């Protein structure tokens, strides 16, 4: 049997000592845990970005993996900390909605609890760094087999983010950019199922795109060409082959995107 | 018993092959070591930044962890390489002052040695990459249980950075910004103990801040509001809730910061 | 015996969920594999950068390490996926030339195969994310001991990048910048063997450098000084001590560099 696996997702950046401090505390509790960085580049306090990231990445992991998420603008407030089990995965995260899309995608969660029992916390808890003082030691104990039931009471309500839903409009479907990846590809909130035939028209941010190609993969078009396709997570995507659609179209998360099918 | 734990802290950045080369060399010596990245984003040659980072992060780690630090503007010169034990941790670093605050915080170190014995080095040592050619193989051997006494002689002197000390002034305390984290929060060199009551006035970089709130955590104020608080490492901190105080106040490491208590 | 070691090199960046998804899939196949990030900061689709990176970093690793490389502008096209063994290392990469310099440096490879057998792939393969759907599960199986012979047929041809070769010119040697590291140091394609005596003149990007020093290591010159030296991978390098030669000289990969020896 392998040592337990614990992943880390934060908005701390890679240059500050905060991630390192969390790793130290976790290993101090459970020296045999296997730590895995998912990202520390969630934009600061961007719960919506974290929500997309987690729903994309976590379903790929083997069962029993423990995922620790610290994107926590409400640190020090009355916001709760959640422990949840969902499709054989285990998650520890602030109750701020960052698990909403994950729960839709592989949920619903079971055994959701508020983490309240201070016996597993660091002896002195700061008001601004619960990642080090609460999440890390609790995660260390969970990875060692501590029964989640000791952490706090089962709850049946938690914060849920409203996802911007695509809607049918006269010319086709109106949605928006949900995510911009590091290549500048625009991932929309329009699921593949709604793209029942090849789009003829595309508007991004109020600007009509005169030339684009519908492709199955980037390699079908030439470098620099604007393309529309189905993304690897099953959504309408707009991309520039070997370039950045975000830069070309001045688009970012939230930019409206309309696809038209008829002529 | 778990495999030995070895952490890496460098200023190599994440895009160059230097970190990967070090990992390869360490694993070539000790294939069972567990490598853990702390950061490779120390700003180039910034010993003071490394000093702050290490003093914040290393005390959280379990005993016997071996920390390898390569922030080394003096590579190829006569600067020594130090091996030190401090509060049950083990550190391998250039002798350039980057361990100063760590030694103050959890020290003093014991068994400090100059690493001079070439038998553990790579067969060919470049003049510009001791990280790969000396630090990595020596660390690999140390992680395997090599007796540090073989590495070189005990020394009783090493380079120490002068920390800028806060001082009492007529209106209160004058200090400076010690660290700016990825959120843009300004961590000062003024310890919580010196902030005996709530500050009434704040000057940052010669500019008097007319409106700020004293809070225990960010969540007590509204997004965009300027706040002062005690940081998670016990110092006076100036922040903008869900924003960047560094950007708002044009502040960076070294920017003067004065707090006033009376009216 | 330690658990098998598997390294990851991609151009996905550290903020997108793509790397995390790959890690999840690999661990889903082989929960005991040890994952090691080399970099995810290869510039998007930059095969030449990947080629330099891999040739610098991979030779340092212990034998039997499995290296997975996903810098794959041709994803979804007819480009093949290669499995290769070279000097006791194992590599899985798109057949786009990114292994060319590695093969020159420690090759030639043996047992090169096209990865074609879909039985090890994810059940549904997207057209744009073979990293998650093909590379990751195949790597997971390889790390578990799956015989590479099952993956697909041995091939004897693969894509090779033409490396820009330095050439002798009247005044000395004409080459170019091959790599710019995170310090802004310019690594040229001119091998140390061609620099038979100290260069007297340097032209970078058509601009003659009036003042530079020939040194063995940065520490021999003063901060801010322009220097020429032999890099840690045995090439002519131009640097600014504790500064950035790339910024000072407006140089980047491909910028011409001429060294002159006579007067």
**Oligomerization:** homotrimer
The portion of residues forming beta strands of chain A comes to: 25-35%
Q: What structural category characterises the helix and strand content of chain A?
A: alpha+beta
- Number of DSSP helices of chain A? 5
SSE order of chain A in H/E notation?
EHEHEEEHEHEEEEEEEEHE
Q: Any idea what the shape of chain A is?
A: elongated
Main sheet of chain A? 9 strands, mixed
The total of beta strands of chain A comes to 15
- Share of residues in helices of chain A: 10-25%
**Largest interface: chains, residues each:** A-B, 36 and 38 residues
Radius of gyration of chain A in whole Å, from Cα?
21 Å
Can you tell me about this structure?
- The structure is a homotrimer of 263-residue chains.
- Chain A is an alpha+beta fold and 263 residues long.
- The first copy, chain A, is 18% helix and 29% strand.
- Chain A has five helices and 15 strands.
- Chain A has helices at residues 18-29, 47-57, 100-106, 130-143, 245-248; strands spanning 5-10, 34-39, 66-70, 81-86, 89-94, 110-114, 167-169, 172-180, 186-191, 201-204, 207-208, 213-214, 226-230, 235-240, 256-260.
- In chain A, strands 7, 8, 9, 10, 11, 12, 13, 14 and 15 form a nine-stranded mixed sheet that branches. The first copy, chain A, has a six-stranded mixed sheet with strand order 2-1-3-5-4-6, sandwiched between helices.
- In chain A, helix 1 (18-29) packs parallel to helix 4 and helix 2 packs parallel to helix 3.
- The longest helix of chain A has 14 residues, at 130-143.
- The first copy, chain A, is elongated.
- The relative contact order of chain A is 0.13.
- The interface between A and B is large, with 36 and 38 residues.
């Amino acid at each position: 049997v392998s040592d337990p696996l614990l992943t880390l997702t934060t908005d701390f950046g890679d240059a500050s000592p905060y991630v390192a401090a969390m790793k130290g505390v976790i290993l101090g509790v459970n020296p045999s845990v296997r730590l895995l960085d998912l990202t520390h580049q969630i934009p600061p306090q961007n719960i919506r970005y974290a929500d997309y990231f987690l729903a994309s990445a976590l379903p790929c992991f083997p069962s029993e993996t423990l995922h620790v998420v610290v994107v926590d603008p409400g640190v020090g407030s009355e916001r709760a900390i959640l422990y949840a089990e969902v499709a054989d995965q285990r998650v520890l995260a602030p109750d701020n909605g960052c698990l909403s899309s994950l729960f839709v995608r592989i949920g619903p969660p079971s055994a959701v609890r508020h983490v309240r029992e201070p016996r597993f916390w660091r002896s002195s808890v700061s008001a601004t760094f619960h990642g080090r003082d609460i999440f890390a030691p609790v995660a260390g104990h969970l990875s060692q087999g501590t029964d989640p039931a000791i952490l706090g009471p089962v709850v049946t309500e938690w914060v849920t983010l409203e996802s911007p839903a695509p809607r049918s409009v006269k010319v086709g479907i109106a949605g928006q950019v949900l995510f911009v990846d590091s290549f500048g590809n625009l991932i929309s909130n329009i699921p593949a199922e709604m793209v029942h035939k090849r789009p003829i028209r595309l508007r991004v941010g109020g600007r009509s795109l005169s030339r684009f190609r519908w492709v199955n993969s980037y390699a079908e078009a030439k470098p620099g060409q604007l393309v529309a396709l189905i993304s690897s997570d099953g959504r309408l995507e707009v991309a520039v082959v070997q370039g950045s659609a975000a830069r070309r179209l001045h688009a970012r998360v939230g930019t409206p995107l309309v696809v038209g099918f008829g002529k």
